[in-house]
Amino acid sequence: MTKVLVVDDEPNIVLSLEFLMQQAGFEVMTAEDGETALTRVAETRPDLVLLDISLPGIGGFDVLERLRADPDLARLPVIMLTAHGREVEREKGLALGADDYVTKPFSTRELVERVKALLGEAGQEGAS
Amino acid sequence: MSWRSEATVLAVAFGYLALLFLIAAWGDRRAERGRSIIGSPTIYALSIAVYCTAWTFYGSVGRAAETGPSFLLIYLGPTLAMLLAPFVTRKMVRIARAQRLTSIADFISARYGKSTGLGALVALIALVGITPYIALQLKAITLSHAVLVDYPEATGGTLENAPFWADKSFWVALVLAVFIILFGTRHLDASERHEGMVAAIAFESLVKLTAFLAVGAFTVFVLYRGPGELFARVAETPALLEVLGLAAVPGGALGWVGTLALAFLAFLGLPRQFQVMVVENVDERHITRAAWLFPLYLLAINLFVMPIALAGLLGDAGGNPDGFVLTLPLGTGAEGLPLLVFIGGLSAATGMMIVETIALSTMVSNQLVMPLLLRARLLPRGGQGALAGWVLGVRRLAILAILLLGYGYHALVGDAYSLVTIGLVSFAAAAQFTPALLIGLYWRGANRMGAGLGLTAGFVLWAWTLLIPGFAQSGWLDAGFLTQGPFGIEWLRPYALFGLEGWDIYTHALLWSLVANVGLLVGVSLFTRQSSLEQTQAALFTEALHPRLDQASLGHAGHTPRGELRALLDRYLGAATTARVFAEEPDQDDRHPASPALVARGERALAGALGSASARVLIDSVVRGEALDLPALLSILDTTSETLEMNRRLEQKSRELERAGEALREANERLRELDRLKDEFVAMVSHELRTPLTSIRAFAEILRDHRDLPDDKREHFLEVVVRESQRLSRLIEEILDLARLESGRLTLHPERLDLAELARRGVEAMQRPLEERGITLEVAFEADAAPVIGDPDRLEQVVINLLDNAGKFADATAPRVRLTLARHKRGFRLAVEDNGAGIAEDERERVFEKFHQIQHQDDGAPRARPRGSGLGLPISRGIVAHLGGRLWVEDAPTLGGACLVMELPEAPDDDAAPPTPPTAPASPAAE
Amino acid sequence: MMPTRRKERLIALIILATLLFTPPLLLVTERLGPGALTLSVFLAWAAVIALAAWLLEGGRRE
After folding, report:
1. Alpha-carbon distance B304 to B326, whole Å?
2. CB of C43 within 8 A of CB of C32?
3. Number of residue pairs across A and B with CB atoms under 8 Å?
4. B639-740 topology per CATH
5. Interface of C with B in 8-47 (CB under 8 A)
6. Is B708 within 8 Å of chain A by CB?
7. Highest mean pLDDT pick, B198-212, B476-490, B912-926
C-alpha cells in the first residue's frame, strides 16, 4: 500500500490531510515538526511527503534539504505546503528539489490529484 | 649719609637713567636675536601707560586738592577710548602696518592723499602744542628735586636766576637726548618698532605705579590708621568736604563733560599715544588685552590720589599741592620713601619725554624738514646710501632741538603755569587731531581741504582761547587783553569768545575749536572734490578692516625702469634695504619696467624712512603713470565683497542642502524600515489568516465531497470549521486592535474600577478552559480593593490574555499558573506566573513584538508551538500603556517560570471625576 | 575678527560706561553725601573694567 507522510504543525490541517489521503487510498503517517518527520521517513519509508514549510524546530526547507542529501531519499516525491503566498518561497522550494508546491488554503480535489499524479509517475518508475 | 643729600639724589637719579639704558639695550639685543621681550599684551598695556606722566604723578594730587574729583576725568576719558580700541586702534594698526606709517602726522597726511602740507601742519601743531608738555616734565623734575633736597625750606621752585648748567633738569634733558638718539633712531625706517625703548617704557610704568602706590599706602596706613581714620578726620573739616563734590569741579556738570571729552579726544590724538599704541604695536591681538588692562592701570594709579590730597590738606603740609606726594612723607622725617617717590616722578617724566620726543622728531624730520629739503633740492646728489645718513641726521638733530626747546620753554615761561594747566592746554591741542583722524577713518568723503581747514581753524582757536591767554597771564601780554578783549573788542575775549561766558576755560576752548574743526572738516569736504589719490587712500583707510583687502598687494600702475627705481632707493635707503626690496624678483634686467608690486614695495620702504608724503613725491619723480585709482580699488573691493557674499551664501546654502540631504536620507531610511516592517507584518498577517482558513476550506470541501461521512466524523469536522472560524474572527479582531493601537485610534472607555474584582472575573472566565487543559490555577489577592482607572472590557481582555498565555508556557506535565494582585507604591501590580521554562533575559522584550513566537524546547525535545496569534501580548502592552501603566516580563517569584507583570497607577479618590483618557497615541512597543 | 555678539556687547558696555561717567547719573550719587560721587565713580570704573575683562578675555574661549 502506498504510504504518505503528512507533516504540519496545525493539528486541524493534519487531520484534514490525513482524512483526504486515507480517502484516496493511501496509508497515512503524520508528524508535527521537522525532527519527527525525518524520523518517520527513516522508519517507514513513505512514498510521498506532504511537507509544510513553517515548522517548529527544523523548518520545512531544512527537512527537504536533508532528504535530498540522502541518496536513498533523493528521489522521494515531496509536495511543499505553505501559508506564505510568496513567489520567492515557491522558487526556493522548487530549487531545493520539491516536486510540487501548494499554497494554503488549497483546493482539496486539486491537492489529491497532484498527489496521485506524482505517485503515478513514481509508481511507473517503481514498476519498471 | 643722608638719603636726601645732593650727591645721593643725583647718583640715584642718574643711576636710574643708566638702568633704562641697560633695559633698552637688552630689549634691542633680544629683538635682534628674534626673541622679542615686548611680544606680550601686558607689556603693550604697560607701554600705553606712558600716558601717565609727571602730570599724573604730581599734578593729580594737586588737581584733586583744588578741583576735587575732576582729576579722574583725565583717566575716565582714556578708559572710554580704550574700550573702543578693539574697533578704532585695530583699524589704525592695520593701516599703519600696511602703509608703513610712522606717526600721527604721517597717518593724517596719508589718509588725505599723502598730502605734504597736511602732514607739515599736523607736525607743526604737535610741535607747538606738545613742547609745553615736555617743558612740564622738566619742570616737574626740577621742582621735585628741589623739594626733596631743600625740605623743609619752602622752595619757590624756580631756578631762574641760576645758570642753566646748575639746573638738574637740563642735564636730564641731555641724557634723555642721548638715550633717544641711541634707542629711537637705530633704524632708518621709523615705522620699525623700537623694542628696547618700549621695554624701558614698560619698566618705567611699573616704577611709577609702584612708587605712587607706596606713597599712597604710606599716607593711608602709616600717617593715618587706615582710610576710616582719614575720612573721619576729613568729616570734621567741612571745608574739605567740598573738595569731594561736583561743586569743586570747574564749570560744574558742564565742565565735567567737557573735560571728559577733552581727555577722550586727546588720548586718541596725542603723538606719543599714537606711537606706543599704533606704531609700536607688535600684534593686533594685544589690543584686546590692553583694552581693559590699561584702564585697570589707570584705576590703580588713581586709587590713592584723593586720600593723599586730603591728607595733604589736613596736615597742612604746606607748599604747592602738586608736591604733596613728596612733602607728606618728608614731613614725617622719612627719607627712603621720598627718594622712591622722586624716582617714580622721574620715571613718569622721562617715559613721556622719550616717547613724545621720538614721535615729534619723526614728524619734524619726515613731515617738515625732509619735504622742505626735497622741494628746495638742497639734498646732495650723493651716491649709494648718501641720503640715508642725512635722514637719520635730521632726525637726531630734531630730537636734540625738541628737548632743548622744551627746556627753553620750561626755563623761560614754565613757571607761570601750574602742572595741570600746561597739561590741559597740550591736551586741547592734541584733541584737534582726533576729528581728522576718526572721521577720516570712517567717512570716505572727508577730504584734504576739509581736514586742512578744520585743523587750521581748530589750532587758531586753540591758540586764541588757551595758548595766548597763558602768555597774558604770565605777564608777557597786557592783562587787559583778557578782560576787555583785544583792542577793546569784547566778543573776542579769549575766555569768553562770542560772549560765551561762565564756562571753564578748557570746555570753552574745546567747544569753539572743535565746532570750527569738525564743522569745516565736514562742511568743506561736502563741497569740494578729492583728487584720485585721495579717493584711493580714503577708500583704503575706511575699508582697512575689509577681510580680503590686502593693501600690500595693491600695485602701482605705470612703467618705471627697474634701474631708476633701484637708484632712487639706493640713494635714500642704502644698498642693504634696496636689496631687500628687490629680493623677491632679483634676476631681471634693470632696463625692464618694474612690476607694480615692486613699485609699491619701494614706496612703502621709502615711506617708512621719510613718511608717506615724501615717498609719494619721490616715487612720482621716477614712475611715469598713474597710481591705482579709486574705480580700480573700488572694483577690487566690490569684487571681493561680492565674491565674499556669494561664497558666504553658497556655503550657507550647501550647509542647508547637506542638512536637508541628511534629513531626507534619514527619513528615507525610516520609510524603508517602515516599509520593510509593513511588508513583514502583512506577510505575517496573511500567514496567520491562511492557517485557520486552510482548515476551514479543507473541511468544508471534505464535507461537500463526502456526503456519506459517519455522523460523528461529520460533527467533528463541523466543529473544527466552527472553531477555526471563531479563531479567524478573533484574529481579525486582534489585527484591527493592533492597527488602532498603532495609529492611536484605539478608543478606550476609562472609568474607575476595582482591579481585584476585574481580576476575579477574569479568573472565573478562564478557570474552566485552563482546567480542561489540566492546568492548576492559583490565585493570591494581597489587596482587597485595587481602585484603578481603566477600560473594564479591555483590561479583562488583558487579564484573560495573560492567563491564557501563561497556560501555554506552563510546564507540560504538571502545568501550574498563579495570579497575584498586590499594592506597589502608588499603584497595583497584577502578576501572572507559570512553572514553565521561563523566558531568557534577552527574549523578554521580544515577546512583545508582533507575531513573536517563542521557540519552546523541553529537554531538547521539540514540542508543538503554543497556539496563538502572537498578537495578544503586544496588544495587551499597548492597552496597559494607554492606561498609564506598564507590562513586562520577569522571573516568576514562586513558580520559577516566566512572570508577566502588569502595573497600573492607583486611581485618585472617589470624589474625583474620572480623568479624561490620555490622548497620547499608544503603541504596543511603548513602555 | 571679533564675533558679532562680542562686538555688540562691547558697544553696549561703552554706552553704559559713558552713562555712568557723566552727569545725569552722576548727579544722583552726588546727593548721597560728601565723597559719594568720587566713590561711585571708582566703583563704576572698576565694574566697567571687570565687565570689559570678562567680555574680552572670556570671549576668546568661546
Report:
1. 14
2. no
3. 77
4. Helix Hairpins (1.10.287)
5. 10, 13-14, 17-18, 21-23, 26-27, 30, 34-35, 37-38, 41-42, 45-46
6. no
7. B198-212
- Say if the Cβ atoms of C37 and B244 lie within 8 Å: yes
pLDDT given for residue B648 in this prediction: 72
Alpha-carbon distance B201 to B52, whole Å? 11
- What is the third-level CATH fold of B6-375+387-437? Sodium/glucose cotransporter (1.20.1730)
pLDDT at residue B414 tops 70: no
Name residue B833's beta-bridge partners: B818, B899
For residue range B765-819, list pLDDT tens digits in order. 888 888 888 888 888 888 778 888 888 888 888 888 888 888 888 887 888 889 9
User: Is B69's Cβ below 8 Å from some Cβ in C?
Assistant: yes
Residue-by-residue DSSP string for B82-97: HHTTTTHHHHHHHHHH
Q: How far is CA A74 from CA A2, A34, A97, B623, in A?
A: 18, 17, 9, 103
Separation of alpha carbons B804 and B471, rounded Å: 116
Domain A3-127 indexed as CATH 3.10.310.70 = no
Model confidence over B741-757: pLDDT tens digits? 877 777 888 888 888 88
Which helix (H) or strand (E) is B74 found in, with range?
Answer: helix B73-83
Grid coordinates given for B750: 476609562
Contact B879, B797 (CB under 8 A): yes
Q: How many residues are there in chain B?
A: 927
Are A82 and A101 a contacting pair, CB within 8 Å? yes
Would the CB atoms of C52 and B292 count as touching at under 8 Å?
yes
> Which position has the higher pLDDT, A14 or B872?
A14
- pLDDT tens digit string along C12-44? 999 999 988 888 787 777 777 767 788 888 999
Per-residue pLDDT tens over the stretch B112-159: 988 888 999 999 999 988 888 888 888 888 888 888 877 766 554 444
Please state the domain extents for chain A.
3-127
**Residue C38: which of B69, B83, B295 has the nearest Cβ?**
B69
Q: What is the rounded average pLDDT for all residues in chain B? A: 80
Question: Could you tell me the fold of the domain covering B749-905?
Answer: Heat Shock Protein 90 (3.30.565)
Continuous segment of H or E residues that includes residue B522? helix B505-527
- Nearest one of B795, B789, B786, B791 to B752, comparing CA atoms: B789
